[in-house]
Amino acid sequence: MNILITGIHGFVGSNLVVSLKDHHVLYGLDIITPKKEGVMKTFSWKDIETTTFPMQQLPQFDAIVHLAGKAHDTKNQSAAQVYFDINTGLTQKIFDFFLKSKAKKFVLFSSVKAAADSVVGNVLREDVIPTPVGPYGESKIAAENYIKEHFILSTTCPYGYSISGEEENGKYSGKQVYILRPCMIHGPGNKGNLNLLYNVVKKGIPWPLGDFENKRSFTSVDNLCYVVEGLLTKDVASGIYHMGDDEVLSTNELIALMCKAMGKKPHIWKMNRKMMEVCAGLGTLLHLPLNTERLRKLTENYVVSNEKIKSALGINRMPVRAADGIMKTIRSFTTESTE
């Protein structure tokens, strides 16, 4: 297949190139266009504007994977409009290009944060009514909605929206669209929240919230690449799919894995839960770093179901176990810190 990947020089894009390059012809679309091993050519965003770069001058793509976007800013320093300009605006631009092109498959990388900032109930499934909080999740759901507005939608799917890819006049007949919502993605080269926690643990700072046994889903980038290739090469029904590893991990288990990778003994303090909640409440009143909202984020459950995507791909389990994927990620941190 000829595959166009936006954001190809990012963390997920770089991993996807390694996963796909041996069996497919890859092209990139990014804000920077240096040569990349395994990539035939990287275009700029201006190149897909048909007014300046006629479509017939571009290769004929069989599929488009849209990764480009603005990641969640954990420090909350980014202006809200930036998220909408990038996450929503670029999606509109590339999806319009897809509709005009001969490409048959389109994969949008959205996020579980487009569905819910916090999980109500035991597990987050595709049938949830989206209630994003903040510009990151709101810009992602706006991108999803733009796609839905341009395709006939069927709500008879047991997991929520199913995108038919066909208008009454058959204009988009044969096209398939996938909205993929991964939870926290990790792997070598990742610089997200896991790296921040790793740096805390590395310094030997005790974790005081051991009394909270939360459960969280993660997404190994290896599992993610496996799923993307499955969507591109198999006859999978269009629709929305949540993505995560099979197993869930608590923060305590995560810290234990980090210490195992570093050859250290974990320092997990089980401070009284009620006392920590009272301290967080005082922190809210006094504007301290540990407040009620931050405590909730650090200790809440966020379990994501991957049953729909596994069923669609005809598999019983993901190829990489959650703990193995986490260990691979953490070992990459230890390697980077010694270089």
Automatic annotation (TrEMBL):
Q: Where are the transmembrane segments?
A: none
Indicate the segments forming the NAD-dependent epimerase/dehydratase domain, all copies.
Answer: 3-241
Q: What SUPFAM superfamilies does UniProt report for this protein, alphabetically? A: NAD(P)-binding Rossmann-fold domains (SSF51735)
Taxonomically, the superkingdom here is: Bacteria
> What protein name is recorded for this chain?
NAD-dependent epimerase/dehydratase family protein
Question: What is the scientific name of the source organism?
Answer: Bacteroides intestinalis
